[in-house]
Amino acid sequence: MARILSLTLNPALDLTVRLARLQPGEVNRSEAMITHAAGKGVNVAQVLADLGHQVTVGGFLGEDNPQAFEMLIARRGFTDAFIRVPGETRSNIKIAEQDGRVTDVNAPGPVVGEQAQQALLEQLARIAPGYDAVVVAGSLPRGITPQWFQGLLQQLKHLGLKVALDTSGEALRAGLNAGPWLIKPNTEELADALDCPTDSVAQQAQAAARLHAQGVEHVVISHGADGVNWFSPGTALHATPPKVSVASTVGAGDSLLAGMLHGLLTFDVPETTLRRATAIAAMAVTQIGFGITDEAQLETLQSGVHVRPLTEQ
Ligand SMILES: Nc1ncnc2c1ncn2[C@@H]1O[C@H](COP(=O)(O)OP(=O)(O)OP(=O)(O)O)[C@@H](O)[C@H]1O
Ligand SMILES: [Mg+2]
After folding, report:
1. Among residues 132, 226, 254, 268, which one is catalytic?
2. Beta-strand (E) ranges in the chain?
3. In this predicted model, what pLDDT tens digit does every residue of 225-236 receive, in sequence order?
4. Superfamily of domain covering 223-313
5. Which residue of 254, 256, 290, 298 sits with most ligand 1 atoms within 8 Å of its CB, as the best mutation to test the pocket?
6. Among 78, 89, 147, 268, who pairs with 62 as Cys (CB 3.0-4.6 Å)?
7. Is the pLDDT of residue 253 over 90?
8. Which CATH number, 3.40.50.10800, 3.40.1190.20, 3.10.120.10, 3.40.50.300, labels domain 1-22+31-144?
9. Is residue 254 among the annotated active site residues?
10. How confident is the model at residue 32, as a pLDDT?
11. 3-class secondary structure, 58
């Protein structure tokens, strides 16, 4: 199994509030309130751990409320490489109503100062040689510029790590300049970052060719229930997930990314890699949370994934 470093620069405490119906401007009584440590890199780390990998989590964590993260890190047996920064890690509030409507209120999080930024770079230079790959996932916290982020990815690449990037907007645009090993945007995120349409397979293939030339080896484009297109030099595959009943799509993209890393780092054949990753993402959708909770269910989902070469279209 692989040793993987998973970085979340802007983690969040997800606070899910369940209630029958939200009455704005009134006193609302919740049925339950659940807090858990989250953030895209932390989610990816959990699925990778389910798959048997040795995972270190890092990035920036507010020093005033680290408990939920520290508990998760201990429970999952992760190595803790988070740089502590002054202030509180942000909370993302999800108000979940009985009819399935979810209202999100996302907080900005602490400002990450120069000292913490420097500390992360120094730490990574020290620990990077011990890993096979690094995941960098999620948004940028306040205080971090896209230019600095590009430099971080360049450093990780120069340290010899395979860099898997999952972010959006300015961060993805800047990140692409560093030529990461793998990216996993959804179709909108890719179109936005490249500033060109990526609706058709032909447009995606063209975009992937440009990205390959820039040093991006694996372009994994997700499109919700429609599935995944994966372009790497010499391979272009599509996977359609089986039809599943949707409990929550939280963690679907993170599960897909973890599944792709698993297949690539254990040198599975491409078809198997994509099939399993798509099944793991579908499994996330069937749950309120995500992760590999039932091996037999995963097997069934895997056999329901349809994989075909993209050239057939
Ligand atoms: N309704 C669904 N049924 C089956 N699989 C799904 C469904 N929604 C998503 N998936 C799987 O999850 C993958 C990732 O989903 P999506 O494209 O929505 O990612 P995303 O936009 O990055 O999401 P996020 O980052 O919010 O997790 C899809 O490629 C697909 O394989
Ligand atoms: Mg995503």
Report:
1. 254
2. 3-8, 12-19, 32-38, 54-62, 79-85, 90-97, 102-106, 133-137, 162-166, 182-183, 218-222, 228-232, 235-240, 306-309
3. 999 999 999 999
4. Ribokinase (3.40.1190.20)
5. 256
6. 89
7. yes
8. 3.40.1190.20
9. yes
10. 87
11. strand
- Cβ distance 44 to 121 under 8 Å? no
What average pLDDT does the segment 42-50 reach?
98
Question: Candidates 192, 249, 286: which one to mutate for ligand 1, based on the most atoms within 8 Å of Cβ?
Answer: 249
Q: Is 253 in the pocket of ligand 1 (CB under 6 A)?
A: yes
> What pLDDT does residue 312 have?
46
Tell me, in angstroms, the distance from the centre of ligand 2 to residue 254's CA. 7
Instruction: Report the length, in residues, of the chain.
Output: 313
- 222 touches ligand 1 (CB under 6 Å): yes
Give me the residue spans of the domains in the chain.
1-22+31-144, 223-313
Which of 31-40, 182-191, 207-216 has the lowest average pLDDT?
Answer: 31-40
The amino acid that residue 145 corresponds to is T
Distance 256 CA to ligand 1 centre (A): 8
Encode pLDDT of 120-136 as tens digits: 999 999 999 999 999 99
Q: Is the pLDDT of residue 313 over 60?
A: no
CA of 89 to the centre of ligand 2 (A): 20
Residue 240 neighbours by CB under 8 Å, 6+ apart? 226, 227, 278, 305, 306
Mean pLDDT of 39-58: 98
Question: What is the rounded radius of gyration, in angstroms, for the C-alpha atoms of the chain?
Answer: 19
> By alpha-carbon position, which residue is closest to atom 5 of ligand 1?
282
Query: Which residue has tokens 């590009």?
Result: 150
What type of residue is 143?
G
Find the 24 Cα to ligand 1 centroid distance in Å: 30
- Look at residue 100 in the predicted model and tell me its pLDDT: 83
